[in-house]
Amino acid sequence: MKKPIIYISRQIPAELLHPYKDRYQFRMWDKEAVPVPRDVLLKEVQDADGLICLLSEKVDESLLKVAPNLRVIANLAVGYDNINLEATKKEGVVVTNTPDVLTETTADLGFALLMASARRIIEANHYIKTNQWENWAPFLLAGSDIHHKTIGIVGMGRIGEAIARRATGFGMKILYHNRSRKVNAEEVLGAKYVSIDELLRQSDFVVSVVPLNEETEQLFNEEAFQKMKNSSIFINISRGGVVDESALIKALKANQISGAGLDVFAEEPIDREHPLMKLSNVVCLPHIGSASMETRRKMIELCLENADGVLQGTGPITPI
């Protein structure tokens, strides 16, 4: 009997496939850091029963049209704005993602980005590496305190709550805005639900953890940045599309806000010529929110479990 085929759009450790080698035929793009070309992806899915892919792979009607055997798409991410859910539902293809396993790791990165931006860590490191440190001065590379400041979390999902937990250790006042109230977060973490306008006006740190959709696209625009404190710092670990980058650049240059820490961008990847990379008050990271060895392995394992569950008829663990 022919084994079902699962195509994997990036190179992953072969040992993670071993538990499934007797049940499936695996095919894999042979590069880890380079996305599979569109034409190769379309060719590979033609006889595939399952697809494990990244955010860089666009799963749309044209892909589904050439993949009549496809039964499951396991997205190696929490977000899934790369997938046309309406089209997959129409074709009866199950779509899964990887929530929960990356929550704490992404929150670690978000808070690290906040701290690096506030205390000018990257600038300070560059200062020494470029041999500029000749003397000590009272305000040399002086940044902003984090402890006992106000953090405003936009999007109080799993990651938002994990960031709030970290903020409690710094004695921070926690504000949040979400589509719905999170009573447990209010009771356990002391978080306060406020309107988005009030959050922007009061917060010393504004952290975006919202999904990208029609409601949140360019949520952080010129008007939003104008409402923020001149001393505030904007952190984005959600999706680049929730920010009007032109408005953010304008706000940073005009000192409407103090700085920004960004792990995501409207168009990825960016290079060193990107306007945001030229600003000293911005810390830019290459979308590494969940990039710890432990978490990335767990994400891949969950994708494999999801694909296996659908193809074996027991059902997925984390369907969308």
Automatic annotation (TrEMBL):
Keywords: Oxidoreductase. GO terms for molecular function: glyoxylate reductase (NADPH) activity; hydroxypyruvate reductase [NAD(P)H] activity; NAD binding. The keyword Oxidoreductase applies. Coiled coil: none annotated. Residues 111-289 form the D-isomer specific 2-hydroxyacid dehydrogenase NAD-binding domain. One of its GO terms (cellular component) is cytosol. Residues 8-317 form the D-isomer specific 2-hydroxyacid dehydrogenase catalytic domain. SUPFAM superfamilies: Formate/glycerate dehydrogenase catalytic domain-like, NAD(P)-binding Rossmann-fold domains. Gene3D superfamilies: NAD(P)-binding Rossmann-like Domain. It holds the Pfam family 2-Hacid_dh_C. It comes from the Bacteria. Belongs to the D-isomer specific 2-hydroxyacid dehydrogenase family. This is D-glycerate dehydrogenase. The lineage of its organism: Bacteria, Bacillati, Bacillota, Bacilli, Bacillales.
